[in-house]
Amino acid sequence: MAWRQIFFNTRAILMSQQPHPTPGFSRFFSKSSLYVEKVGIPEFLKGIGKGVESHVAKLESEIGDFQKLLVTRTWRLKDLKIPCQQRKLILRYAYKYRLGLWRPRAEPVKS
């Protein structure tokens, strides 16, 4: 019984004290964002890399809007004469972007 009171009392004290002055923000988010804020077709394709960025002009002229690129099907990309491997990359990253699992970085990562 005594251990239970000590446990719950110390837990309540620890939860009431916030380590940072602003609730909900961690010290790890003090740096500026590493991701591109406004994403368009050129930023999206540069973020994918692997030669896909060579199709920026073609996709901007034919598709036009980034939101349309996110829902474009493989046949539309095939009609634009985009090679199979690059079509797969565009579609895979568009799917990840729609789910919120991937965003293009502001600067490419140097390997």
TrEMBL record:
Superkingdom in the source lineage: Eukaryota
Coiled-coil annotated residue ranges, if any: none
Pfam families: SAM_Ribosomal_mS41
Matching InterPro entries: SAM_Ribosomal_mS41
Span of domain Small ribosomal subunit protein mS41 SAM: 41-100
Protein name: Small ribosomal subunit protein mS41 SAM domain-containing protein
